[in-house]
Amino acid sequence: MLHVQGLKCAYSNVIRALDGVSIEVGQSAIVGLLGPNGAGKTTTLRCITGEMAFLNGKILEGTIRFNDMYLGTTLPFEVIQHGISLVPEDRKLFIDMTVEENLIMGSYTIRDKKTVRLRQEKVFEYFPVLGGLRNRLAGYLSGGEQQMLAIGRALMSDPQLLLLDEPSTGLAPMNAATIFQVIAKIRAEDGVSILLVEQNAVRALKVADSCYILENGRSVLHGSSDQLRENPKVKDIYLGISTDSQSGSVLEG
Ligand code: ATP
Question: How many CB atoms lie within 10 A of CB 119?
């Protein structure tokens, strides 16, 4: 469904943020994107959504294909129309608008009012707590509720592919667990594909079918979550399990 091949990009023509990222996301798959700070995870999502142009960024090489379409120069609202929806790390909610109004903002690519209503009911099925808060201003929601609303708003456009940028950041473990349960449910019930950027490797490997590891703007490792859980480098660096008890070394290959 999504094929990113050899992606290289820079901000302000000088800061090379990506230096060869290749990832694939299949139909109804959950794919994790892991890596240290500054590895290029968010930038990869920005290239897909067409946001780079608004940040003085530019794709230098590589291709992004979604179904039969080549993205890269496509504008963000067109990317949404093509079926890709982003939940940004900072959520970007309209804090002076109610929960319901925020959801409606997410449905601006859908003209039919009945469809909008059905989408909204679907969001409330995923996140029942939001139904009870539908008239509350988004700015008064807790962190966990705001994250639910950000995901709910992204679902309003009925995406085929959902891009999630660190959905568990700043959340209490219980709220993070709820979010990950719903992510699994969105795939299972609606067949939505999910590309999940996540700092928490344990959680990502639990929910994702496969993961890519990004380092210094490159995709350096890819495998099924089961394979990666057993990979010595992943164990050492991302799961904090030392595989070299003799020397205490944390690095491998
Ligand atoms: P984190 O986990 O800390 O969010 P990341 O893997 O998402 O990191 P990016 O945010 O994509 O990494 O950053 C990749 C590189 O691009 C970094 O060197 C970063 O400083 C740089 N960068 C990111 N955004 C911008 C920007 N708007 N302008 C200039 N450089 C940027």
Answer: 20
Measuring from atom 19 of ligand 1, which residue has the nearest CA? 38
Pairing state between β 161-165 and 84-87 = parallel
Under DSSP, is residue 137 helix (H, G, I), strand (E, B) or coil?
strand
Q: Measured between alpha carbons, how far is 7 from 78 in angstroms, rounded to an integer?
A: 20
Q: Is 34 in the pocket of ligand 1 (CB under 6 A)?
A: no
Q: Which atom of ligand 1 is found nearest the CA of 40?
A: 11
Distinct helix (H) and strand (E) counts, the chain? 10, 10
Enter the tokens of residue 175.
């709220």
Instruction: Check: CB of residue 185 under 8 Å from CB of residue 126.
Output: yes
Ligand 1 centroid, distance to 185 Cα (angstroms): 30
- Cβ atoms of residues 219 and 212 within 8 Å: yes
Indicate whether residue 39 lines ligand 1 (CB < 6 A). Answer: yes
pTM value? 0.92
Predicted pLDDT of residue 200: 87
Mutate which of 7, 9, 11 for ligand 1? The one with the most ligand atoms within 8 Å of its CB, which is 11
Give the pLDDT means over successive 10-residue stretches in the chain (253 positions): 97 91 97 94 97 94 96 92 95 96 92 92 96 96 95 96 94 91 95 94 94 96 95 86 46 31
Q: Report the SS3 class of residue 44.
A: helix
Detail the DSSP E strand segments found in the chain: 2-11, 15-25, 30-34, 57-66, 69-71, 84-87, 161-165, 193-197, 210-215, 218-224
- Please name the residue whose Cα sits nearest to atom 2 of ligand 1: 37
If you measure from the C-alpha of residue 38 to the centroid of ligand 1, how many angstroms do you get, rounded to a whole number?
5
